[in-house]
Design goal:
The chain is α+β, with helices and mostly antiparallel strands. The chain is 52% helix and 14% strand.
Length: 274
């Protein structure tokens, strides 16, 4: 098997390239070239094909900062930012423990994640093989979320590559704080947050009980019956009964149908007027 360019670099040449790209990133702080230069720095040890950068400000919805996403896939990004991020395993894991960190999708995804409509839309359909998330704190409960990915033709991220990123987290966080320190905190879009929360609470409310809604969201996230049972503290048999009732009451026959209903509810909530 042929080795990638990254694999055949000598330690000396890699250190030289790391120093060069780091100096470019430092020199471009506060300029539009900073984020592309920062990507080049991260790629020295951990090659990747694309990146999505979001601002996570307190409990507000994530906001778009930068990306290298193809135009054909941009509608999925818009849907994600409208509220589907609530199903993102990275976002779910980060909310449980907000801190500067890096994580691999296989370490945080539920046990049936690859069977979800979310996975089909945001991985299989755009030919992503693997993803790593990096969260860096800016202060005042603001974080940057870097999502870096590899295509199906490339190998998965390796454990030692995650360690490379974790090693560089202090540098990455410090540079990003300097770059974004002049950016004023955007005012909280409280009404949008309220509409999103309202939409989530309303999902299936015309037919589902509160417990059934909890189970439905777990299904959408990719939890199996056993995993859902642990999440909401009921028996797997009870979860199976709830699942059957959910599909019957919402007149859906698949996880894909359930996802479509979920997105429709989000759209209604986001577009609603307070």
């Amino acid at each position: 098997m042929a080795k990638s360019t990254n694999d055949i670099k000598t330690p000396a040449s890699r250190e030289q390239q790391r120093a060069l790209t780091l100096s470019k990133a430092v020199d471009s702080i506060g300029q539009t070239e900073f984020l592309p230069n920062m990507m080049d720095y991260l790629r020295i040890d951990v090659p990747f094909v694309g990146m999505l950068l979001l601002m996570v400000d307190g409990l507000n919805r994530p906001t778009h900062v930068y990306d290298t996403i193809r135009a054909a896939y941009r509608p999925n990004l818009d849907i994600y930012l409208d509220g589907v991020y609530e199903l993102d395993p990275f976002f779910v894991s980060f909310r449980k423990n907000r801190q500067t960190c890096a994580m691999l999708i296989r370490d945080v995804a539920p046990d049936r994640f690859q069977l979800t409509e979310y996975y089909r839309r945001y991985y299989r359909n755009i030919e992503l093989r693997d993803e790593m998330a990096i969260f860096t704190e800016l202060g005042d409960d603001r974080y940057l979320s870097f999502s870096i990915a590899r295509r199906v033709s490339e190998p998965r991220f390796r454990r030692h590559e995650l360690k490379y990123i974790e090693r560089d987290l202090p540098v990455l966080a410090a540079l990003c704080r300097q770059h974004f320190k002049q950016a004023s905190t955007q005012p909280s879009d409280a009404s949008a947050e309220q509409r999103l929360e309202f939409a989530l609470e309303r999902f299936g409310e015309e037919a589902l009980t509160p417990r059934e809604r909890d189970v439905a969201v777990c299904i959408l996230k990719g939890h199996s019956s056993k995993s859902t049972a642990r999440e909401i503290e009921v028996s797997p048999e009870t979860v199976k009964i709830h699942r059957k009732n959910i599909y019957r009451k919402l007149n859906v026959t698949s996880q894909s149908d359930l996802f479509v209903r979920f997105v429709a509810t989000l759209n209604q909530g986001i577009s609603a007027r307070a």
